[in-house]
Write a structure and sequence with these properties.
By secondary structure, this protein is mostly helical. It has 5 helices and no strands.
Amino acid sequence: MAKSSPRQRKTSGRVMHEFKHGELKSGKGGKGGKVKSRKQAIAIAMHESGTSKYDSGAEKKSSLAKSKHKESKGETYQQEKEGKSHVGARGRRESSRGMGGENATRTTRRGSSGRRSSASTAHKRKRSSSRKRKAS
């Protein structure tokens, strides 16, 4: 069996965390009620992360994209309950490797793409220009 990607593992972990804390709900919009069965929770986790063998390729892709979008906007049950803007972040800091740095101390702009913030790139530009001056 193929190994799942880090993003897929993170999504599966988030769903299982929701199950353990009684936040995971079944059905469209959570109208089916709380999930009580571990097997059902695993099935939901695999579907959301796009690792289920029962979904087609297109279905896997769309369900993972939907989960990514939900996580980035802070709309998962875990984020709503814990008041976080990202999964895996302590408070609002982007602490995980997938979220911008292994133990980032500074919060990044919400929705910014890439690892570096604009402040660090400006600092690097300043350093490179000072090196050029020293060389000439």
